[in-house]
Specification:
By secondary structure, this protein is of the alpha/beta class. The protein has a single domain, classed as TIM Barrel (Alpha-Beta Barrel), CATH 3.20.20.80. About 40% of the residues lie in helices and about 15% in strands. It contains 10 helices and 10 strands. Strands 1-2-5-6-7-8-9-10 form an 8-stranded parallel barrel, surrounded by 4 helices. α8 links the parallel β8 and β9. α9 runs parallel beside α10. The termini are far apart. The relative contact order is 0.14.
Length: about 300
């Protein structure tokens, strides 16, 4: 009897000594984005630098909006590059994952009242027919002040879309709650939980990783994921306002430190020259294309190799 009690106590101790991130860790996923040209250039650069360790990313990232569902089965352009998911899947048939950012700014009421039901159904059909694992960021960066989402309406819209896709038996979709993990108003504490749709509607918690200075906010996001026992996704990442190779290398080191510290399961990298995109050309983001420098590309490849182990 004593031995059985001791064994049970030992097993409980082991279970509680494991972090939730250890328990829920999924197979590491790496996707590249965010438009057709940048994706094509990245794939081509792997051959150019003879990088065999990551000869193929797991997938791609694209964008669409709930009022149009463009950029999936047809090309779309909004000043940030061409999105055309079907074309990318055709060109790179071995990819297994598609990560989609679903834009909903100024559209929450229409979602909730059913005005976009046909579009939600169209999105569901596309996801089914893609035959890929699709990670859907519903209303990405929901706490970004630029989106100006009412928290209650955002939650209702998020749940509405998720529930409709579930009811339509879309089984290859994973729902991502994506917070910006950055605070534009330092007077108020960062509290993204006011936008949380609930555990039953969230498969993964995503964050943005641009400015390395947002350490506090990213810690809050990581702790939320830990407490909720949800995997962490770097939903968007790119070195912000970093023009020298040295500064970009420092950004890569900061990114992968966070990946290690918070057991991140999914990395999405935006491999673009921001300064050439009309939407961003005045914002001084810089050129984030890894293939512009051999050391950058090799450093990234080495980190991805460790991440994928």
């Amino acid at each position: 009897m004593f031995k059985k009690c001791f064994l049970a106590l030992f097993l409980l101790t082991v279970m509680f000594s494991l972090s939730s991130a250890d328990i829920i860790k999924t197979k590491p996923i790496f996707v590249i984005g965010q438009d057709s040209q940048s994706i094509e250039e990245f794939f081509s650069s792997l051959k150019q630098f003879n990088i065999k360790e990551i000869s193929y990313p797991d997938g791609i990232m694209v964008y669409t909006s709930i009022n149009s569902i463009s950029g999936l089965d047809e090309p779309s352009y909004n000043g940030a590059g061409v999105n055309y998911a079907d074309d990318m899947i055709k060109n790179y048939p071995d990819i297994k994952v598609v990560q989609i950012g679903l834009y909903m700014k100024d559209m929450l009421d229409e979602v909730i009242n059913g005005s976009f039901d046909d579009n939600i159904d169209k999105l569901g059909v596309w996801i089914k027919n893609s035959n890929k694992d699709v990670y859907l960021r519903i209303g990405y960066e929901c706490d970004n002040t630029e989106n100006d989402y009412n928290p209650e309406k955002y939650i209702n819209a998020y749940r509405y879309i998720a529930n409709r896709l579930k009811n339509n038996a879309v089984s290859n979709v994973h729902f991502v709650w994506h917070i910006i993990a950055w605070n534009s108003n330092s007077k108020n504490p960062y509290n993204p939980m006011i936008y949380y749709p609930g555990d039953d509607w969230v498969d993964m918690i995503g964050i943005s990783f641009f400015d390395v200075s947002a350490v506090k906010e990213r810690k809050i996001a990581g702790d939320i994921a830990f407490n909720k026992k949800k995997p962490v996704m770097i939903a968007e990442s790119s070195p912000f306002n970093r023009y020298s190779v040295e500064n970009k290398l420092a950004w890569i080191n900061a990114l992968f430190k966070y990946v290690k510290d918070y057991k991140v399961s999914f990395i999405s990298y935006i491999n673009v020259n921001w300064d050439e995109l009309p939407m961003f050309e005045q914002q001084k983001w810089g050129d984030a294309r890894l293939q512009q420098n051999k050391k950058l590309m090799q450093t990234w490849a080495d980190n991805i190799k460790r991440f994928k182990k």
